[in-house]
Amino acid sequence: MSRTAAGKEKKSFRLNMMFEPSELEELDNFRYSAHIPSRSEAIRMLIKLGMEAFAAKIAKEGSAPTGAPGS
Q1: Half-sphere exposure of 51 (CA within 13 A, CB side)
Q2: Which residues contact 59 (CB under 8 A, 6 or more apart)?
Q3: Which of 7, 22, 30, 64 is placed for a possible disulfide with 71 were both Cys, Cβ 3.0 to 4.6 Å?
Q4: Distance of CA 37 to the CA centre of its chain
Q5: How far apart are the C-alpha atoms of 9 and 44, rounded to whole Å?
């Protein structure tokens, strides 16, 4: 966990990602159709939705699928 000099946790972290051109085009199409102001916000939204869907799948199945984190 990264901390500042005052001992408080940082609020934001930079994460560098590489995309294939087709993936970036798909991300931008999603972003524009959903009226999301930035690529970063679109990525955060998609990650959150993916994690929620994964949690719902685990709850439905009763355990994490094989190969999933924590399995």
Answers
A1: 7
A2: none
A3: 64
A4: 16
A5: 20
Q: Which domain holds residue 44?
A: 21-61
For residue 34, give the H/E element and its range.
none
Total of domains in the chain: 1
Does a structural domain hold residue 56? yes
Mean pLDDT lowest for which of 1-10, 14-23, 33-42, 52-61? 1-10
Interior CA angle at 68 toward 66 and 71, to 5°? Answer: 65
Contacts of 36 (CB under 8 A, 6+ apart): 30, 42, 45
Interval 14-35: pLDDT, tens: 899 999 999 999 999 999 999 9
